What we know:
59% helix
Amino acid sequence: MSTHLKEKAEQIQQILEELMEESNSGKPILVEGQKDAEALKALGIGGKIFFAKKGLKTFLEVVSEIEASNPREIILMLDFDKEGRGLTEQFKTHMEKAGVKVNLHYWLKLSSLTGREVKDVEGLAKYLKTLKNKIGDS
């Protein structure tokens, strides 16, 4: 059992390190809210972060804000729950129409690795810590 958990933790860590490199190279990340951004920062991921849910801004205002920054590519890291999947699809459609490449690689990988155990980006740091604790206990 611990071998499986160790492999899972290593895979998640690897994906997060790749995400960090992408972010550090200038690719912006779209998250749902402030707590998601704080979770990414706690995992060592900085760079430009946009918020899908920012105060009273509408969906189209958020899209316009992203377009105004003129990114070639944006990494979508919205939540893994039903609402997050819907928002991901909406942003993907609008960003591609605007000519911005959408990167879902990290979102898809993390979603498949964590399954139903993590419903949001905010929970990733705690989940990884829990995995590492379980490995240490075994």
